[in-house]
Amino acid sequence: MNLDPSRQLARLVGQLPDLQVVPPYQRLLWTLRAMLLRRASGVTCGERVRVDRRFYYPAGLRLNLGDGARIKRDVRAGWEPGRAPNAELSIGPGTEVLSETRLDCTGGIQVGERSHIGRRSTIYTHRHVLDRRDTPALDAPIETAPVIIGNDVMLYSEVVVLPGVTIGDGAVVAVRSVVSDDVPPYAIVAGMPARVIRERA
Question: For position 20, what pLDDT does the model report?
């Protein structure tokens, strides 16, 4: 098990409460968390990165946070150890990941620049293959596929993105949509499963 001291210290500091009403304190916490992330193995952290409290990322996950990226409170990134040679989370410059989002990074998640991942959204990059009756659900093999989200993308709250999906630049995904297929650039999609309803003008 990876017991990288910098990663452990970053996790500890990540538990300190955020007090947005005390800006100097809040800025100090953001600076301290980013500094500790830069020292952790497998982590690349740009300038002006702001990470709020209780951001969980497990040992072994490659993490890349671009300049000005923002991760709000209670975001959890995970992966399936031993089955995830491509486990990675890459958040582009200026992108925001809002609170209580869940990120399954088993197959790798890449988010471009200045995009928005809404509150309580979930992104999956692996699934259990349950096609055969003679394979018990808990013994089913795992299949992975990366999720790629482009630049200037808006995912509203409680969106679910399934493995292997690519969401093109400038796309918009409506609240509580389930994205099971690729989304073209600048399309606006909604529904379960999400379908194109129009395009951005």
Answer: 66
